[in-house]
């Protein structure tokens, strides 16, 4: 069933309501309504600081809820940006591939991660970056997709393994752990300096310190503060 997008404001007064709204966000993502999905996740994220919870377990669940929303907003913003990019030059195509690759590193539900991996496989294969395309294909197969998708991925994998090279150099090293800058949509590799949003904990390269977070849209990047406080035990 299609989700109505006439009213995308999510009013989350309890954690159970937040989980219900999360399902709506998931449905919108599955339907390809990325702008509406991002708005839904954003509404849920901003509702979390207004919750009052009683136990450490509930506190952790609230933090997890915010984390899920953060990952989806970041991923969806990247995907929306990717779709707006020009495709005229090789460098345009390289940047498109980079954003598709980064999207596969957002912490998404398996069904949505599979969609990002299928996109990445297709784009990298067309760019003749067969070595990296093969890695995406393997990740997708490991997730246990439908038989027809698995068969298609195995065929692509076999073709890539015959010529395991990458024709174009990208700003993407899958073997080097990284987090993503939510403003520049570039990787921040382990050991590099970064700043965080004090509310949603998304990461930024240092030059964005002092700017408003592009994910929660309310907190100042790099601001030192006490952070999320929604449980009475936190004040004791």
Q: Low-confidence stretches at least 5 residues in length (pLDDT < 50)?
A: 1-12
Quickly count the helices: 7
Structural class estimated from helices and strands: mainly alpha
State the share of residues found in helices, binned by percent: 40-55%
Widest sheet: strand ordering: 1-2
Structure characterization notes:
By secondary structure, this protein is mainly α. It is 50% helix and 4% strand. The protein is built from seven helices and four strands; from the N terminus they run αααααααββββ. Strands 1-2 form a two-stranded antiparallel sheet. Strands 3-4 form a two-stranded antiparallel sheet. A hairpin with a 6-residue loop joins strand 1 and strand 2. Helix 1 runs antiparallel to helix 2, helix 1 runs parallel beside helix 3 and helix 5 runs antiparallel to helix 6. The protein is globular, with a radius of gyration of 19 Å. The N and C termini lie far apart (47 Å). The N terminus is likely disordered.
Name the features:
7 helices; two-stranded antiparallel ribbon; 236 residues; 4 strands; disordered N terminus; 4% strand; globular; mainly alpha
Condensed summary:
With 236 residues, this protein is mainly alpha-helical. It has helices at residues 15-30, 34-47, 56-84, 90-103, 110-126, 130-142, 147-161; strands at residues 178-180, 187-189, 195-196, 203-204.
Set down the secondary structure blueprint.
Elements: H1 15-30, H2 34-47, H3 56-84, H4 90-103, H5 110-126, H6 130-142, H7 147-161, E1 178-180, E2 187-189, E3 195-196, E4 203-204
Antiparallel strand pairs: 1-2, 3-4
Helix pairs in contact: 1-2, 1-3, 2-3, 3-4, 4-5, 5-6, 6-7
């Amino acid at each position: 069933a299609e989700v109505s997008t006439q009213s995308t404001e999510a009013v989350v007064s309890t954690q159970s309501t937040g989980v219900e709204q999360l399902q709506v966000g998931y449905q919108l993502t599955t339907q390809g309504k990325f702008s509406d999905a991002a708005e839904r996740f954003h509404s849920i994220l901003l509702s979390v600081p207004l919750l009052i919870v009683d136990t450490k377990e509930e506190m952790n669940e609230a933090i997890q809820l915010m984390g899920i929303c953060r990952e989806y907003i970041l991923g969806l913003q990247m995907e929306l940006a990717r779709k707006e990019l020009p495709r005229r030059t090789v460098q345009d195509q390289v940047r498109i591939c980079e954003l598709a690759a980064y999207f596969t590193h957002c912490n998404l539900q398996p069904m949505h991660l599979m969609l990002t991996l299928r996109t990445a496989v297709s784009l990298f294969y067309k760019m003749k970056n067969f070595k990296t395309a093969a890695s995406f294909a393997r990740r997708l197969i490991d997730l246990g997709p439908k038989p027809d998708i698995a068969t298609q991925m195995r065929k692509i994998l076999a073709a890539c393994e015959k010529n395991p090279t990458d024709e174009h150099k990208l700003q993407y090293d899958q073997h080097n752990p990284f987090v993503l800058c939510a403003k520049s949509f570039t990787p921040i590799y382990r050991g590099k300096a970064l700043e965080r949003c004090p509310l949603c904990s998304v990461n930024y390269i240092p030059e964005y310190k002092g700017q408003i977070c592009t994910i929660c849209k309310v907190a100042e990047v790099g601001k030192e503060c006490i952070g999320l406080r929604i449980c009475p035990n936190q004040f004791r």
